[in-house]
Model the fold of this input.
Amino acid sequence: MKRTNFLLFFILPFGGLAAIFFLFSSLNRDYVQRKVEDLAGEQLQATSEILRVNVAHLLDDNVDPGKIIAISAGEKSIYYLALLDDRRSILSWSSRYEGYLPLSSKDTDRTRPWIIASPAGRIFNTITPVATAAGRTYHLYLGYALSGLDSLISRSNHNFGLVFAALVVVGIIFFLGVFALQRSYLAKTREAEAEKEEKERFREISGLTSAVAHEIKNPLNSLSLLFELLQKNAPSGLREETALAKAEVRKISDIVDRFSNLLRPPRPQKSRLVLREVFAAVHESVARELSRRGVEFRYSESAPIVLDADERLLSQALANLLRNAMEATEAGAVTVEASRRGRRVVIRVRDTGRGIPPEDLTRIFDPFFTTKDTGMGVGLYLTRKIIEAHDGRLEVRSEPGRGTTMTILLPGGEHE
Done:
């Protein structure tokens, strides 16, 4: 699946779910708000009815309107209270906040409750007629605070925000997790395809090499026999030249054999090895060349390391890396550092040479790729194959003009 398609496949459904959740939550909050307002309205009607009866009795007893308001305004949820005469003029009033009574002439004719905004939040308002036994009609103006409703709605909005944020976070985490898995799957798929192509190419190269070696070996064997007969029957003056020719034929045969063996898949025969001893043998094989080139060799271990590996193959891989580092270093040093990292052995071969151009870094492990005037370009390819046959990994880091570091990661390894 392409990245764009993958993003659309996950983002669009997630966005749709988030939008649906937001819509239903909004509808639910509106529904809750309407229901709570209805309940508050019913409570207001009940409160105003109780106050109406009480105020009517007090008026029948000729209690002063100011005292009636003082007696009736004590309920916690009543924000303000006013008593109006039959002409809708205010006889007396009380408010939790002195000087605040939001009653206008257009409000006095209202017959249904209404809501206004105030410094204390939203307030339910109602005007209720009060009839006395004497036949006079008064009006009771009541403001009922909806602080409980506002708190409930605020908490509902807060909870909605938390749930929506949690949904978004969970969705993002899920998306990133799935995206990481998909990216890992694609990377492994590409790696498997590359490995398959490499194995196929290896089989083709190996088959071609075997065929060429077979075709070359037959005439070489014939030439070897021919030179052997010539050496026996040749005059004494030609026997030395015939022996030299026979040796050259044998050398060609050895090269063909060695080349054929190099391209066979490595099959390690592991044994317990002391890494320092392996490096000592490898260093001895290249010491003369190092000295001739004037390249200094340094080896260090964090502690003596013992590991299970094929000595011949590991020596071949290390020798290849040392020779490459040596050939890349015109003056300076080749440094080998060995250490343990958890359950792995880490071997770094570092040179101070010319480095590898960025465009060549991705190709240096390809078979028959080389930038040298001599060589077949199979050294690093075979080295990586040997390390991978040991369940290890070979990494490279290089900067033109500042040298190259080859890092071998091998499983296991113990201190002596």
